[in-house]
Write a structure and sequence with these properties.
Length: 201
């Protein structure tokens, strides 16, 4: 006998996409229906994102606005857009600097790695390993020349920005500096960002 709160016998429950034998592709990432927002593709596997923390949201906004304030005419700054590294890898940096000619229209969903000058990742608790290891390795292999990794440090959870530059001979990133209060750089263009603004928001 069916009780009042029982589910209908025909209720299938949640349905998860079943990957093809060779894994998903970036084309699938852009066309599969009902994927959660900000889903990424790593080695043919879909990676879902947890809700953002306040630190992640505010830090991403401060960096994007800071990068945008001095961006040259030939470049664009974007927040959380998919960067296509290869058919099996579509990653979504928290902030990226893109060549202006790569922007084709308002309905564009991805950018090729060859047009990305800088990828920025703000570390989240659920993505530490990906942000610290997997993503920078893949960005470097795709030839993205600049990478920033942002984490909370110290007892006051202050933002620290680790700045990396791609070595042309090694094909890997080398750390060029760690910035706590002010991020003042000359590459990929002249940048001056007050990181203490993160604590004030």
């Amino acid at each position: 006998m069916r009780t009042e709160n029982a589910l209908p016998a025909t209720d299938p429950g949640p349905r998860w996409p079943v990957p093809p034998p060779s894994g998903w592709t970036v084309n699938d990432l852009c066309t599969l229906p009902d994927l959660p927002s900000h889903t990424q593709l790593i080695d043919g596997s879909l990676v879902f994102r947890s809700p953002q923390s306040c630190f992640h949201s505010v830090t991403t906004d401060v960096l994007r606005e800071g990068l945008h304030s001095t961006v040259p005419a030939g470049l664009r700054v974007h927040r959380q857009m998919v960067v296509v590294l290869d058919p099996a890898n579509g990653l979504e940096p928290d902030v990226s600097v893109i060549r202006a000619e790569a922007v084709k229209g308002w309905d564009q969903m991805t950018f090729p790695a060859r047009d990305v000058l800088l990828a920025v990742e703000v570390v989240s608790p659920d993505s530490r390993s990906r942000d610290r290891t997997t993503k920078p390795q893949k960005y470097a292999a795709a030839g993205i020349p600049h990478f920033w990794l942002v984490e909370m440090t110290g007892s006051d959870d202050h933002a620290a920005v680790q700045v990396y530059e791609l070595g042309h001979a090694s094909g890997t990133y080398a750390l060029t500096g760690i910035h706590h209060d002010r991020l003042k750089l000359s590459v990929p263009y002249d940048i001056d960002i007050d990181l203490t603004a993160i604590d004030e928001l």
